[in-house]
Protein 1
Amino acid sequence: MLRRRRPLLRAAAVGGGAYIAGKHMANKANEQAAYEAQQDQRISDLEAQQGPQDYQQQGYQQQGYQQQGYQQPPPQYQQAPPPAAAPAAPSVYDQLSQLATLHDQGALTDDEFSAAKAKLLGT
């Protein structure tokens, strides 16, 4: 009698494990499908916001390329980005703090510090 129960118990454990694994895989597949549907909806919303004019213009451009014998549109060269603006001059506060640091380190005397501070403040 005990010999009979072991194979049954083993089969039940294996079958139960397979059932749980299958259920987990099905849930994962459903989650993936829902995620992809959500992404598709977002993409279609963005395309709807761009409007049909953009697509019509692109269609006309593609037809023109095909009529001229191009497989793909010719490469479009982008303009170089404008040169970076020169860094802004340090603020008066920053310059005063640098002067104070130099004065504290002993690099500037009291007279030099006062003269530089007056020059910065315009007095």
Protein 2
Amino acid sequence: MARKSPSQKDLLARLADAGEDALHRLSEAPGMDKATAFAKSTRKQLDELTKRVQGISALEARISKLEKQVATLSKDSSKRSPARKAPPTTAP
């Protein structure tokens, strides 16, 4: 297992510190509270949309099942012989 040299550790530590500093400055930027609120509301909307789409998937499965049942029933009704009409009666 290779060990990191002190200069690599120093470089990684400096990068981590710079990233933390950038995030801190970004969080204090004007308008960031609005952007954060927008991101949170978007997440809630996305969660609701995901639930609705899952509901649609369940409905599609039910529709597919019902379509198969209708197809089966229509095949069965076409196999049946049509009702016979009574012969016309002649009046004397």
Protein 3
Amino acid sequence: MTVITAKTEPRTASRGPQTPGRAVACTLDSASTASHVEVVKRFCKLILVIVLLSASAVGVVALKSAIWISHFNY
């Protein structure tokens, strides 16, 4: 898994008046936005896989419990 970082300009201690050039430099470019969207998509897929695996594990435990409980009725 590769870490993707945003490209930003370094912060300086004294900030002068904001010029239009500086305002443009602070916005995210399309490549950076696309990389953030990809990170969010990967995160959502990971959460979906975890939820599906948890649901299947709960289903298996419920099925085994139902089978073993029926054995105790005799």
